[in-house]
Structure formats: structure tokens, C-alpha cells
Amino acid sequence: MEVAPENWIGAGGRIGEAFEKIVARTDLVCHGLLLNLGGPDPLDVPYIKRIGEFCKRYGAKCYGDHLTFCAESGQLYELLPMPFTLEAADHLASRIMQVQDILGERIVVENPSYYVALSQEISELEFTQRIFEKADCRFLIDINNIYVNSQNYGFDPVEFLKQLPADRIAYAHIAGHFRDPDGVIVDTHGTDVIDPVWELLESAYGIFGVFPTLLERDEHIPSLDTVVKEVARIHEIQQRCGGRAAS
Questions:
Q1: How do residues 182-199 score in pLDDT, each as one tens digit?
Q2: Banded pLDDT at 141 (limits 50, 70, 90)
Q3: Which residue among 75, 89, 154, 234 has the highest number of C-beta atoms inside a 10 angstrom radius?
Q4: What is the pLDDT of residues 88-110, one digit of tens each?
Q5: In-domain check, residue 73
Q6: Which of 174, 179, 175 lies closest to 190, judged by CA?
Q7: What gap in Å lies between CA 112 and CA 122, rounded to an integer?
Q8: Is 171 helix (H, G, I), strand (E, B) or coil?
Q9: Does residue 167 form part of some domain?
Q10: Using CA atoms in the order 38, 40, 45, 51, what is the torsion angle rounded to 10 degrees?
Q11: What residues form DSSP beta bridges with 186?
């Protein structure tokens, strides 16, 4: 199971008890929303230390956040895109290393979807590669985000995959998305995974080998049977690609 730790720090009462029961029998990964790795504000060191304490308390397998920013002189509550520049990539890498120094371990960062390119001095791929080269962090590879960006910006998602750092992958996300009437695809985690995204996941396993894969569903939650069927499809693809990893 994956949780946003900021939603659970300090949780008590019936909700806190339920959380304790879940993590007692289920592996836990922590994936945050408020770290603000790309932002201009100083990193919130007390917050980072609280995250570290939370992860240790519950035995989280890993912790990380997004290659985005979400605050500037105040919380913006959106995962906003970074400009694709060398300066921005180096800024992100530096802040990732600061977080890792505070926590004493490598964090896991996710490639985001984005709907406006603030600057494109370098490509998204070059931007991502530079961060991993400099920061020595781990990779949460979001398969749906790669598909969404490839459709919105017109690149080959399989060729993009082939050039990502295989040795950095910790686990993956897969999810559904929404297509606007104007053709723009938005990563919503609110619909079933579509066939081209399943196919891209299978391509990723073919390129990198099988890795743990987590199904995201954040809104329009269907019946449990529907969710279980999608998780089973992950297992089927993993087995077809030569092995099974936890999902």
C-alpha cells in the first residue's frame, strides 16, 4: 500500500487504529505531495524530519515525492511543472541531496505529467537523466505519466522508456486518465487503465525486467472487484514478462 505520509502523521482515534492494523499486515511505501523539491523556498527541515520518523515508525520501504514544485511563499496545493533547463535540473538535484542527507537514505522521485512547458532549454528526457546523474536518488517510474506526456507533446513513449536509468527504478505507478474534448489528456487516477497504458507497462518490463507496480485510484472509486481485476492484470503481465514482483 502507498500513502501520502502528510495525511497520516498524527492520525489518531478510529482512523489511526485502522491505519495501524493495515500497516501491521501490509508492506508500506510513502509517497508525498508537499516536499516542494523544485520550489524556491528553503526546504522545511522539521517537516522532513517528521516524515523520516513516520517512515521509521511504520517500517516504510521507501519515501519520496515528485519532480515538481508546490509552494512559493506559501503552499500552492498543486504539483506544478519545472522549466526544462539545466539550472532547474541542478536545483532539483541539489535539494534531493539535501533531503537525502537529512533522512540518511536515498529517496524515490516520480516523473510527473505536465500540461504547460515553462521553458524547454533541454528535453524532458535530458532533464530527468541529469537529475538522476547528479542526485543519486531512486526512481518511481509513472507509466501513465509517460503515456500522457507522449500524447500531449508528441513523442514515442517506448523510445523515452529505453533511455531512462534502469538501475534507479524502485517501483512504478499505473493509472487511468481523462481526455478533454480538445484532445488534451489529464492524469486523474479516476478511470480504468486503458490498453495503450497496459501495453506501455509491458514494454517497460521488457526493457527493464519486472519491477513492483502500484495501481493508483484517487477518485470515482469503483467496486473492489474492478480494482482487484486491474491488480490481477498487473500480475498477469508480470508473469508473461518472466517474473512476478509485488504490486
A1: 888 888 888 999 999 999
A2: very high
A3: 89
A4: 999 999 999 999 999 999 999 99
A5: yes
A6: 175
A7: 16
A8: strand
A9: yes
A10: -30
A11: 178
* The three three-digit cell numbers of residue 8, written as one number: 497520516
Instruction: Return the number of other C-beta atoms located less than 10 Å from residue 227's C-beta.
Output: 14
H or E segment and range at residue 147: helix 143-153
How does 140-168 read in b/e, with b if 16+ C-beta sit within 10 Å?
Answer: bbbbbbbbbbbbbeeeebeebbeebeeeb
Answer for the pair 20, 1: CB distance below 8 angstroms, yes or no.
Answer: no
Count structural domains, the chain. Answer: 1
C-alpha cell recorded at residue 153: 507533446
What is the C-alpha to C-alpha distance for residues 171 and 1, in angstroms, rounded to an integer?
12
Please state, for a pLDDT cut of 90, what percent of the chain lies above it: 82
DSSP annotation of 84 reads B
Instruction: Evaluate whether residue 169 is within a structural domain.
Output: yes
In a domain, 13, yes or no: no
* Domain span holding position 191: 31-240
